Amino acid sequence: MLRKTGVPGLLIFILLGMLFGSDGLFKITFDNYSFANQLCSIALIFIMFYGGAGTKWSTAKPIATKAILLSSIGTILTGGLVGLFCHYTLGFNWHEALLTGAVICSTDAASVFSILRSKKMNLKYNTAPLLEVESGSNDPFSYLLTIIVLTSITGGSYSISDMLLLLLSQVVIGIIGGVCFALIAKQILIRFDISDSILDTAFIVGIALIAYTVPYLLNGNGYLAVYIAGIILGNSQIPRKKAILNFLGGLTGLMQMFLFFLLGLLSFPSELPIVSVTAFSIALFLTFIARPLAIALLMTPFHSPLRQQLFIAWSGMRGAASIVFAIMAITGTNSLTNDIFHIVFFIVLFSILIQGTLLPVVAKKLDMIDDNENVLKTFNDYTQEMPVEFLQFTLHQGHAWEGKKISDIILPPECIMALIIRNHEKVLPKGDTILKKGDTLVLGGKEGGEISTVHLYEKEVTKDDPWLGGRIMDVVPDKNLIILIIRKNNVIIPNGNTILYENDWLYISDR
Question: For the whole model, what pTM was predicted?
Fold first, then answer.
């Protein structure tokens, strides 16, 4: 249902958190913001890392200048405008006005692209990679603004030179840290054989944590470091990159579910009516004035079409990072007079419900859909589907192909010998290549497509099974065909004389 309406599924986890929370049905009391802040910071590390790793630089490079301007100056402008609005219109003191603008000025890439992917919204003017880079890279700047405002609140008098020094150290150390750890990780992955499904993913998780921790301890921007490290690794030729990206994508999804659930759990829905007028006013100003104005100021000099500017402005959804920075604001100072957490909670709900639901509609109304583009190609985990399937087997002694040239053997129709693995080395097959005993042959052929008439099921041979100990030709009914046997992690292609043993897993086709 959510997919049909266009509402991001993460909304469910906010509602679940509210259901389990203090004001919900299950009355679970959880208001430890310090502990929540630590958990959220860890979750955001992986969200930021995947945001960088999933960015395909070849498609992002043409729009990199605009995207970086939007994610840096655009984020600062948006936060500043919201701060001015909160101070002069809503009566916030300067510190809390700027803090509110800082925590809410970044956008949530995952929410936007979950809609773009599910709806396959292919956008004009390279808008998809522009949104991807801008949304993925503006969180560090929102974090930086939050740190600066919190430091000014808790540190008393804080000169402009001190703020500039903090800004410089955060950015420079963050960039250097991200580049260094990414290059180190790249060399380790290439030079050392850790292409194991557990080892390489565990290594990547460790790199993400280290890329954040070391710059953070050196007074740098850990989130910026993590994002840059992700970009470099995601666009490097490393072993099992697609599998690693798929793992990171799944992990990021879990982290986002956790963050939104935690937001709901920490919230008190009974407080929402109290902040509703204030939060709704900020949400309207942010959505219809602050972000569109920042977008217009930065993109008009590039002669960007008005409809593209309007769509980018509408795509500025708030999400996980705003949650983390709101919690950080609460734990960073005890002198707040406004309920910033519930204000942010309300704004995130508004953003997901209204902007998320209407995003496909806005794209169509602004004529931003381009059927000649493919939004999935802007991500590093995209691979062009090929209608090819591969079959691998080892040439045993006495096989009819042993000792023959490839040109002399008859392959199955519409098949090609794609690769030969001989003594652990790859051999490209040619017509005069002679096949030898022990060669592993890889055959390629056209994909058969979905075959609904074939029904497969699996069966384990137990100690009481009547098939136990018998030959397939003697014990298996004619209506069944065993096409595969898994025996102690070994794959066996059976024939009629194959004997079945206890704990064999049989894969059976029936009529």
Answer: 0.73
- pLDDT level of residue 298 (50, 70, 90 thresholds): very high
From CA 349, how far away is CA 275, in angstroms rounded? 13
Chain center to CA of 354: 23
Specify whether the backbone of 337 is left (phi greater than 0), alpha (psi in -120 to 50) or beta. alpha
**Tens digits of per-residue pLDDT, 108-136?**
877 776 777 766 677 888 888 898 889 88
Tokens standing for residue 440: 């592993």
CATH code for 388-446? 3.30.70.1450
Backbone angles phi, psi at 293, to 5 degrees: -65, -45
With contact defined as beta carbons under 8 Å apart, do 395 and 438 qualify?
yes
Between CA 422 and CA 186, with CA 197 as vertex, the angle to 5 degrees is 85
**The pLDDT of residue 284:** 97
Task: Report helix, strand or coil for 398.
Answer: coil
Query: How many Cα atoms within 13 Å fall on the side-chain side of residue 8?
Result: 33
Domain spans, the chain = 2-17+35-378, 388-446, 455-510
Alpha-carbon distance values, 31 to 50, 260, 265, 394, 434 (Å): 29, 15, 8, 61, 72
Q: Among 279-293, 317-331, 436-450, which range has the highest average pLDDT?
A: 279-293
Angle (CA) 455-457-463 rounded to 5° is 150
Tokens of 468: 């136990």
Is residue 222 within 8 Å of 45, Cβ to Cβ?
yes
The two domains 388-446 and 455-510 share their CATH topology (first three levels equal): yes
Q: Domain 2-17+35-378 carries which CATH code? A: 1.20.1530.20
> The tokens of 62 are what?
């043409």
pLDDT digits over 226-268, tens only? 999 999 999 887 887 888 888 998 898 899 888 889 888 988 8
DSSP element (H, E) containing 177? helix 160-191
Distances (CA, A) of 204 to 222, 413, 466: 16, 43, 48
* Separation between Cα atoms, residue 235 and residue 241, nearest integer Å: 9
Q: Does domain 455-510 have CATH number 3.40.630.40?
A: no
Contact 351, 104 (CB under 8 A): no
